[in-house]
Amino acid sequence: MAVIQDVELKKRKRPMAFIYIILSIGMIVQFLPITWMFLGTFKTNKELMSSVPTLLPKNWQLENYISMFTKYNLWQNILNTVFICAAIIIVQTATSTLAAYALSKVKPKCGKFIYMFILGTQMFSTMALLFPSYIMFVELDMIGNRWSWILSSSAWGYAIVLYKGFFDGIPGEMIDAARIDGAGTTRVIFNIMFPLTKPVYAVCILNTFIAVYNDFLFPMMLLPDSKDWTLMMRVFNLQKANSGQAEMYTMLFITCIPTVLFYLFAQKNIQEGISTAGIKG
Fold first, then answer.
1. pLDDT mean over 149-154
2. What is the pTM of this model?
3. Nearest CA to 214 among 170, 258, 244, 155?
4. pLDDT tens digit string along 212-226?
5. What dihedral angle (degrees, nearest 10) is formed by the CA atoms of 196, 202, 208, 210?
6. What's the confidence (pLDDT) of residue 1?
7. pLDDT, mean of residues 115-131
8. pLDDT at residue 34 in the model
9. pLDDT digits over 232-264, tens only?
10. For the chain, N or C: smaller number of CB within 10 Å?
11. Architecture of domain 72-280
């Protein structure tokens, strides 16, 4: 999706040099910190702490990356991150889809009350749920179990509200026609509801991934063992341990890579979902 549409270019008679200049400045401002961090991964601690900062490293070296993977076993942190994010996305998408479909099309008794209750959960801060969740999982003897974080993070009312809003816009005649053809609830969801709202799913999955990926306080409380730590928990631990600047630069750049790759692979669906959400709103 272009920032400036072709229709807008045709309507304007004057050159749009000013807009392009502003966009170029914005791009430089946005990418300069990432570029600085990337180049810092090839520097030594002495060079990073120098009173006269330099953009390019004096001596390019990969020791920082080698040290991070050998010293802190980052491959295990990466595998933990992938597993936790994938599990939460799968569980949340499945449960939220079923709940949204029931509230939108099945319309159970007290459905409006249930929907308002789910909507009301969005008014509570995550920090307010921190200690009650901890006490609950202590009683369930699930501290140190990955499923404690997966189950607690999968219950997100935002996804149910978002899906229900788009399910409401799908005509009931389409579902009735599918049922006449012999389709059950599962087939209706996968063959009708999901394809028609696929871009919205992409946006919700992206938001879920970012929220889970950036979280460290909740999992730090539920998963105290370092073998279960994710990348963000490792970053927090390095910061608390006052590690060297070179290690922090390298670790921070490594943690940026998954989010960039995730967006690049789902870019088309995410842009369509943002546009669709804007029209729906």
1. 90
2. 0.81
3. 258
4. 998 888 888 899 888
5. -170
6. 47
7. 85
8. 87
9. 988 888 877 767 788 888 888 999 888 888 877
10. C
11. Orthogonal Bundle (1.10)
Q: How many residues are there in the chain?
A: 281
* pLDDT digits 0-9 by tens, 60-103: 888 888 888 888 888 999 999 999 999 999 999 999 998 998 99
Our CA dihedral for 55, 56, 62, 64, rounded to 10 degrees, sits at: -20
Q: Where in the chain is the domain with CATH 1.10.3720.10?
A: 72-280
